[in-house]
Design brief:
Aspartate Aminotransferase, domain 2; 2 domains; alpha/beta; seven-stranded mixed sheet; 16 helices; binds 4'-deoxy-4'-aminopyridoxal-5'-phosphate; Aspartate Aminotransferase, domain 1
Length: about 475
């Protein structure tokens, strides 16, 4: 099936088949907290079990097992590079999370900041893309006698749009770095990154290599999970994301950095495997070639393999070509297959999000934050209901089997900026395996939570952790 724009959409039967790949439907869980983490397909655990038969460290052995594990590990870098249209694996480093990936930029660039420089970020960032810069400017660099400002661009309180004029007014010839979210995990806003790039490029900042312009770091944690990310088109200098938001198990985040930066930047961590073989002396150390210069210590080998294979499995699950299987292979992934898969995910999750917005907005006293109905947003809806605690609503949803999240979602600055007191909202969020029934059940559950809050105060949570029905 295709929509009016020719994007493949998922038929009900296809969605049913996709859901058979996961454990949560058997437990009758209504998983609508996908902006935090998605559910992993069962096939990934089967893959890990099989990989464990040739379990070995990478780059650290001559056995067949080590060689095979190294091949799978390295091929994973290529899969991920293709996924984000990076020119090669040399641009990638593996981390524990988006948070660690962004922190690694902070530590690698730290010594380069000159007295009087500044960093510009926004009030809609996740704390991962604000607190490191706050700490750098307020706590770390002052200890070295350097004064660097952290500046925050505003957003429109009604529409959630990034205030580009304000951003442009903050960026000047002392702006070393502009840090911007690719998609807010609270407002749902997707800032126009081309405009942000243009503002950063035009700053006039003099880089160490003599070229002009500020660096751009994109926090793509939400954007990567819900649409195609193309680092070449974005012209991002750095881009960070995590795989636990796109079907993989926890524990792997990625930092993309332009190859020229990778060459010139100091490593983030120092130790084994990031040094050139044999090139360590009392007075001199040579670093390994890219990308291993940024891979100190034994990496999360199984996590990286599972993450890359999760992408392949996603293409198989939503792809238009049932005869082509990418999962469990190391074949060079076709960029068109990635485009198509992520367009399908974006269209499907986008449709569900609009449906949720329509249903929720009709509830008396309920206010949805961020872009209005019909406008593009990441597939999440955060809201508050007048007179009701978002935590009570989330607990009432849980009692009805609907998994949501209440809190500030680590978008603390944005909650303060909007004057939300306490700084919290309730959020539902969608991905490829959600159905329109999930949305309708979530909306109905919010309606009931608001209509009779006392009914849920004492209610035990829905018993989704019991033994599930046996696999058919
Ligand atoms: N940035 C955004 C926009 C996010 O949504 C998240 C996860 N909530 C993060 C950063 C942090 O990701 P991680 O927990 O994988 O470090």
């Amino acid at each position: 099936m295709s929509d009016a724009q020719g994007v493949r959409t998922l038929a009900a039967r296809e969605l049913e088949l996709i859901r058979t790949e996961f454990a949560f439907p058997l437990r009758e869980r209504i998983v609508t907290n996908n902006a935090a983490s998605t559910q992993p397909p069962l096939a990934l655990f089967a893959l890990l079990r099989d990989v464990s038969e040739t379990y070995e460290n990478v780059h650290r052995g001559q056995s067949d097992a080590s060689i095979r594990t190294t091949e799978m590990f390295e091929a994973s870098f290529d899969t991920i590079a293709t996924w984000i249209n990076a020119p090669s694996r040399r641009t990638l480093s593996m981390h524990r999370s988006t948070t660690e990936a962004i922190n690694s930029v902070m530590y690698s660039l730290m010594a380069d900041f000159r007295d009087g420089d500044n960093v510009v970020t926004t009030l809609m960032e996740h704390n991962s893309n604000y607190v490191p810069w706050h700490a750098l400017c307020r706590e770390i660099l002052p200890r070295f006698g350097r004064s660097v400002q952290c500046r925050l661009a505003r957003f429109d309180h009604e529409t959630g749009e990034l205030d580009l004029a304000h951003l442009a007014s903050l960026v000047d010839e002392r702006t070393k770095l502009v840090c911007c979210t690719g998609g807010s995990n609270f407002l749902g806003t997707k800032p126009p990154l081309d405009a942000v790039r243009a503002i950063a490029s035009a700053s006039g900042y003099r880089r160490p290599d003599g070229t002009r312009g500020s660096l751009l770091l994109v926090d793509a944690a939400q954007r990567f999970a819900s649409s195609r990310v193309d680092v070449e088109a974005l012209d991002a200098d750095f881009l960070a994301f995590s795989f636990h938001k796109l079907l993989a198990p926890f524990g792997v985040g990625i930092l993309y950095a332009k190859e020229s930066l990778r060459e010139s930047m100091p490593p983030f961590l120092y130790g084994g495997d990031m040094i050139a073989e044999g090139q360590v002396y009392p007075d001199r150390v040579e670093y390994n070639e890219l990308p291993w210069k940024f891979s100190a210590g034994t990496p999360n080998i199984l996590g990286v393999i599972a993450s890359a294979q999760a992408l392949r499995l996603l293409v198989d699950l939503v792809g238009a070509d049932p005869g082509r299987a990418w999962f469990r292979t190391d074949d060079a992934l076709a960029p068109e297959a990635v485009d198509e898969a992520m367009s399908t995910v974006a269209a499907h999750a986008g449709f569900l999000t609009q449906r949720a917005m329509e249903g929720l907005s009709a509830i008396d006293g309920l206010h949805v934050y961020g872009p209005p109905l019909g406008a593009e947003r990441t597939p999440l809806v955060a809201f508050n209901v007048r007179g009701h605690s978002p935590f009570d609503i989330a607990r009432a949803l849980n009692a009805q089997g609907v998994e949501s999240r209440a809190g500030c979602h680590c978008a603390t600055l944005a909650h303060h900026e909007l004057g939300i007191e306490p700084a919290a909202s309730c959020r539902v969020s969608f991905t490829v395996y959600n159905t329109r029934e999930d949305v309708d059940l979530a909306v109905a559950a919010v309606r009931r939570a608001v209509a009779s809050p006392e009914a849920f105060r004492q209610a035990p949570p829905a018993d989704v952790l019991r033994d599930p029905a046996p696999l058919a």
